[in-house]
Amino acid sequence: MSVNQAIEDLASRVRELKSVIETEEATKTAFIIPFISSVLGYDVTDPREVIPEYTADIGVKKGEKVDFAIKSGEDFRFLIECKKVGEPLNLDHANQLVRYFNVTDTEFAILTNGEVYQFYAQLDAMNRMDEKPFMTIDLGNIDPRVFPYLELCTKAEFDSDTIAANAEELKYISEIKKLIASLFKEPTDEWVRWLANKVTSKRMTAQNLETFTGIVSTASSQFLRDEANRRLRSAQELEEPNSNPAPAENQDPIARKEPILGEENDSAIGEIVTTDEEIEGFSIIRAICCSEVSPKDVVMRDAKSYCAILYQDNNRKPIARLYFDRKTPRISVFDENKQEVFHDIEDVTGIYAFADELRARVRSLQ
To answer: Whole-model pTM?
Structure first.
């Protein structure tokens, strides 16, 4: 079962049972143990892999327990601290998780109430658990863009270096999104002044600041509505039958005249819409390739009939192309002769089946 299907199934289970769960132990049984098993892929019946109520003496603290330790051989992969479903997640109420993290050789931890799963690393300081998570999985509001990163945390795909390479970017993206959301909801004086200075030469007196605060709030609300409407229109267009012919498999990938973002073709660029599926596909490919190159070297450039994935943003160094504007999604991976090798996939997660080809392609471009 794919990660996204396992998450969807667990989310459905949470919606069904959340109202009848009354204890932390029931939360573990109903939600968290299935997450460890079905999503992360560990055998919860094997004490060599999953250790419930893991205990260690830490300094003067004797007999403290963390709810689960997940191991591979002698190496810790995750420490998991559990709360009752519905309870807020706060590290102030998970002191033992922080202490265990700081004295064991684990690099990652999970704090969860069965519905929300917060993943922590040690990005700010070695052997010190970060204060903020690098990834959050909310089963009540699933964001499919995190699936490629969650896949890296599974038993089958686990690679601590690859996870760490993506964790810092994920953490900053998450924090910036929260900041932007708060500014849209309640614009600060600094934010209003900055925007006002871009559109007017008026001095920001108290009265003008109050006026522009209202203007910024109105503009923010209108922007969000316009963006939502644009996405709805894009989704409707994608549902219409696509009359474009399938790409010719022997066509020169460099000579193809499709407009690409960044090239001089304003009228064509205006027709290009980047979909959530393309963004998710790009994230999967970047997560795969970052074992060979820096994630910053894997870049997406969208076009009308395909979405290009390039090495170092160079259209003469293509890695792959995504053809998602058709009934059967398709990915092409370039070979050593710069020829596209096409593969039909059931959904965006099918990209994982071609991880070896993608890594080989990236290695050949260095």
So the answer is: 0.58
